[in-house]
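> call design_seq(struct)
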């Protein structure tokens, strides 16, 4: 076991004492192992690019969360409506692929009694039992499909 970093000196009484020179490391000393020997022209852009990637990721996730919360609040404020409607369109959308699992998203388009048209994302079970031209009662809350009961 060796001596910690420090130096010998003489105190006010004339005694020789060993005084350590340890101090709290700064940020550059903490990360210096990662960038040992790297030139400054590499270190600064590296830190800036990594910071930009991190900020993009954080703001991207944040915006999705905020958008989802706003849509949920808007749907809840709209209340549940049940109105006469006719199915005038169906469509399927494939999502994913490549490295991820392929998922099918189903949509039904309705024409309301007043002529307004609305499209909702629905579960496969609702999509499968509904045909274009079906008439019935549509129940929804804002942009969220609840159910469709054929007449």
């Amino acid at each position: 076991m060796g001596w910690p970093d420090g130096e010998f000196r003489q105190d006010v009484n004339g005694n020789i004492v060993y005084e350590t020179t340890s101090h709290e490391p700064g940020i550059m000393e903490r990360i210096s192992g990662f960038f040992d020997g790297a030139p400054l022209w590499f270190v600064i852009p590296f830190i800036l690019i990594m910071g930009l990637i991190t900020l993009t990721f954080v703001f991207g996730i944040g915006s999705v969360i905020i958008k989802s919360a706003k849509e949920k609040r808007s749907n809840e404020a709209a209340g549940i409506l049940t109105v006469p409607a006719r199915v005038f369109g169906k469509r399927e959308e494939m999502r994913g692929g490549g490295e991820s699992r392929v998922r099918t998203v189903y949509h039904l388009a309705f024409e309301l009694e007043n002529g307004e048209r609305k499209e909702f994302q629905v579960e496969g079970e609702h999509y499968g039992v509904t045909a274009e031209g079906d008439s019935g009662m549509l129940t929804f809350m804002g942009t969220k499909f609840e159910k469709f009961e054929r007449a």
